[in-house]
Amino acid sequence: MARVRLEHVTKRYDDVVAVDDMNVEIEDGEFVCLVGPSGCGKSTTMETIAGLTRPSEGTVYIGETDVTNLAPKDRGIAMVFQNIALFPHMDVFENVSFGLRLRTFDDEEIERRVEEAAEIVQLEGMLDRMPDEMSGGQRQRVAIARAIVRNPDVFLMDEPLANLDAKLRVHMRTELQRLHKQLDTTIIYVTHDQAEAMTMSDRIAVIDAGRLQQIDPPLTCYNEPANLFVAGFIGSPSMNFVRGTVVAGGLETENFDLEFDPAGVPEVGVGDEVTLGVRPEDVHLVADADGSARRIGTIEATTDVLEPMGDEIFVYLLLDEESEGSMEEDPMASQDQLLMSVSPDTDLREGDAVEVTLDGSKTHLFDAESGDALVHGIAGRSGSDPGTAPTEAED
Ligand code: ADP
User: Fold this and answer.
1) 204, 306: one domain
2) Transmembrane ranges (predicted)?
3) Is 327 within a domain?
């Protein structure tokens, strides 16, 4: 086990800044996911920790050691990648023990370590199988076993489940959590899949354009996103965003007004340009909404497309009758629609006129210009408490 620290790590490739002044501290034994869209710098960050690339600036520590200029083999790490490179002509035992044999461990020690690792990844009895006799999931477990036998201080995993089918991926997530508990070791895990990050990690480091946006436990990222990027990236489907202006009685937007008392929300002032954010599950039909303290505003809308998911229905709401109802890919691009999630027994049809309201305790405001979160919850949160101010990103 070891803690891992990046101090002002920057990596430039010609005109691309792949990692931009990254400051992260990962605790001993912590499971941290680096998450963000493709090209945001996750793998490059990981490569600076692994020693596969040298940062242009900054320092990488593993434990108390400055490893910035150390070779990968001297860093006490083991890596598992998306593309599982097993030797096709070697059986499982030989694949798993390959690195140990190179390091001339004695036979007894090799056997002990391989058997222990095989038990952890549940491959006992398969040690004489050849890679082409195994499923994708089993091959991935061989790759993990190969990392385990090295007894590393830190596991680095870069999209290790990306090539597996959806069902197996979900199963392997559980296995990795079990593995983490059992080995009690530091794991740094790269994924573009926010659901994977949400379900497995102690903390998520959300990265955009090479910059750390927020590092917090999954539910903190979900409930108190530090900025618009995190709010839009974490959670599926994405949070609704609507631009508006704070006025004396609440918020004015192009298609609706919300009533709340800005005096109770010291983070904003009358005249401020903001972006309101609300998740689909916090938009409710007025007819269904519970206690009035939390609900803010009555928004008239017309239902457009309905997507029954089994356990809930996603309802696309058109706020402007003139609107064509084009399904914008980018939720920020449309001011004319809201996505609502309702229970599966809700009786709705396309084209219904409905009134909806928002859960004020889960309605966020972001600075319209910088995108930074101003407040999470603008009404009805434990009495008149307007909610908590966000913590600084990169703390
Ligand atoms: P991610 O893992 O989040 O998909 P990467 O870390 O692979 O992102 O890449 C971050 C950025 O750095 C991208 O713009 C990518 O094109 C660029 N990049 C990564 N590796 C290299 C390289 N060896 N040479 C030039 N540019 C690179």
Assistant:
1) no
2) none
3) yes
Q: Are residues 217 and 338 in the same domain?
A: no
Residue 16 CA to ligand 1 center (angstroms) comes to 8
- Give Cα 311 distance to the centre of its chain: 23
Pocket test for ligand 1, best of 15, 16, 40 (most atoms within 8 A of CB): 16
Beta-carbon contacts of 324 under 8 Å, excluding residues fewer than 6 positions away, are: none
Indicate which residue's Cα is closest to atom 7 of ligand 1.
43
Q: List pocket residues of ligand 1, CB cut-off 6 Å.
A: 13, 16, 18, 36, 38-44
Tokens of 326: 């084009």
Distance CA 245, CA 274 (A): 6
Element (H, E) at 222: helix 218-223
Tell the residue nearest (CA) to atom 1 of ligand 1: 39
Tell me the CATH number at 347: 2.40.50.140
Atom of ligand 1 nearest to the CA of 36: 3
| Kind and range of the H or E run holding 175 | helix 166-183
Query: pLDDT by residue (tens digit) across 175-214?
Result: 889 889 988 899 999 999 999 999 999 999 999 999 999 9
| Å from CA of 45 to ligand 1 middle | 10
DSSP letters spanning 231-299: HHHSSSSPPEEEEEEEETTEEEESS-EEE--GGG-TT--TT-EEEEEE-GGGEEETTT---TTTEEEEE
Rounded CA-CA distance 339/335 in Å is: 11
Angle at 51 between CA 113 and CA 90, to 5 degrees: 40
| Whether residue 55 has a cis bond before it, omega within 30° of 0 | no
Q: How much distance in Å is there from the Cα of 279 to the middle of ligand 1?
A: 31
pLDDT reported for residue 295: 82
What atom of ligand 1 comes closest to residue 190's alpha carbon? 2
Q: How confident is the model at residue 391 (pLDDT cuts 50, 70, 90)?
A: very low
How far is 395 from 392, CA to CA, in rounded Å? 6
| Residue 383: pLDDT over 50 | no
* SS3 label, residue 358: strand
Residue 330's pLDDT band (cuts 50, 70, 90): low
Contact between residue 14 and residue 22 where contact means Cβ atoms under 8 Å apart: no
Within 10 angstroms of residue 6's Cβ, the number of other Cβ atoms is 23
